[in-house]
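Quick one:
INPUT:
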């Protein structure tokens, strides 16, 4: 039985420019270098899995259909650039809903591990918030990277192994 390795990506702030509750295609702007980075991870035989909190659904700012419409667009754009996202997991719950999938809990990671037989110790997480890193650490992810392209980062106190300017800068770290 083959065990897979993965690069887990947060969406907002990593794949696209951070904006409050993005759900419209016209508001979705890709980060510089994200297509190249994902293509590189594909070439290095990593599954690329997105794990994203989407509390705007629970809050009523947008619907599941809105989320899926934007997701289809995003996946099509990656395909156009020769890059492949293996799967997208999302948590539609608000912070106080008490679910197990919302980061900083590891539910989405553990679901991916089970579905794709992932060796978590050989995998990576790229996020833009400490909650991303906390979830990854709880799930046993081997290496973690925070990008400065989303939320403000306290570099002196982060639990991430690496801090970089953007997702393109992760290419040299992930071997």
């Amino acid at each position: 039985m083959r065990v897979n390795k993965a690069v887990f990506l947060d969406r907002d702030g990593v794949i696209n420019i951070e904006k409050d509750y993005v759900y419209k295609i016209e508001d979705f702007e890709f980060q510089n270098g994200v297509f190249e980075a994902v293509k590189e991870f594909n070439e290095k035989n990593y599954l690329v899995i997105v794990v994203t909190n989407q509390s705007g659904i629970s809050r009523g700012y947008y619907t599941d259909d809105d989320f899926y419409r934007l997701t289809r667009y995003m996946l099509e754009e990656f395909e156009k650039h020769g890059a492949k996202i293996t799967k997208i997991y999302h948590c539609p719950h608000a912070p106080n809903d008490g679910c197990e999938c919302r980061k900083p809990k590891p539910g989405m990671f553990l679901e991916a591990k089970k579905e794709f037989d992932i060796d978590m110790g050989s995998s990576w997480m790229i996020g833009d918030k400490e909650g991303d890193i906390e979830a990854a650490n709880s799930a046993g992810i081997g290496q973690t990277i925070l990008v400065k392209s989303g939320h403000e980062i306290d570099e002196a106190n982060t639990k991430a192994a690496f801090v970089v300017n953007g997702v393109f800068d992760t290419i040299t770290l992930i071997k």
